[in-house]
Amino acid sequence: MSPRTARGAVREATDADDPVALRSAFLHRGFVRYLGWTARRHFHGLRVLPPLPDVPADRPVIVYSNHPGWWDPAIFFLLGARLFPDRIGFGPMDANALERYGILRRLGIFGLHSGPRGAARFLRTAANVLAAPERMLWITAEGAFTDARVRPVALLPGVAHLARRTPGAVLLPLALEYTFWNESRPEALAAFGTPQDASDRWQTKTWEERLAASLEATMDRLAGAAMTRAPHNFVSLLDGRAGEGGLYDIGRRLAAWSRLRRFDPRHEP
Q1: Closest CA to 165 of 133, 126, 215, 134
Q2: In terms of pTM, does the model score above 0.70?
Q3: Domain-wise residue ranges, the chain
Q4: What digits encode the pLDDT tens for the residues 9-43?
Q5: Quick check: helix, strand or coil at residue 238?
Q6: Could you report the per-residue pLDDT of 78-106, keeping only the tens digit for each?
Q7: I need a surface site. Which of 40, 46, 47, 50 has the fewest CB within 10 A?
Q8: Beta strands in the chain, from DSSP E residues, in sequence order
Q9: Does a cis peptide bond (omega within 30 degrees of 0) precede residue 51?
Q10: Which CATH architecture fits 19-242?
């Protein structure tokens, strides 16, 4: 193999593992539109509890969240597009699962491998992602599906190690919850916590404790707001379908027309 061929092979291998090089803004926009359509079919609404996040424009951001359900990565895409339109988002995913959905590599998703080598690889890739101030990294920091009511909140150690190794970044806790209120479809609820400056030179154990405490406080605040069942306490980013559908809504529609009233499909207008 000639030196030129060898350099080309190294570059190709590097590009194949580099989420920054692989990400397609065009495919990302199309995927977000598809997710918006899908979320409207499955949720009554996507709502964010104020205050909305305010992070410095000249710093990369690490969003770390709890992991209550399958929808979490999709919610990441929707929150990123609507609240951080000028930023470029990335996120890790189990490497074996990613092999089955290779198209996700074109959307900023990179493989997360197990073991010490996998952890070191994650830190290198994350450092590359966060090398530019307009980029942000979204992480389900609990690692496995965990009920939003489980306390205390326990995070994977990789987030704390990442905080220590990326002093230029801002860490932003994100609480997620899916709950039913008064309609047939659930609400997707989110709340952001207080941004934390990664330039603080704490030890890894201290970072673990502080990050977990901040996320737990954000989850508690969201849980309290969710129990009010009051949409007006939230900022609605997406409104989905209302009503029951089928024969039930046909009957309600006919009843409204018979009274010369406009039909409202919501269970509680």
Answers
A1: 126
A2: yes
A3: 19-242
A4: 333 334 567 999 999 999 999 999 999 999 999 99
A5: strand
A6: 999 999 999 999 999 999 989 988 899 99
A7: 50
A8: 45-49, 61-65, 88-94, 109-112, 135-140, 170-179, 187-192, 196-197, 235-239
A9: yes
A10: 3-Layer(aba) Sandwich (3.40)
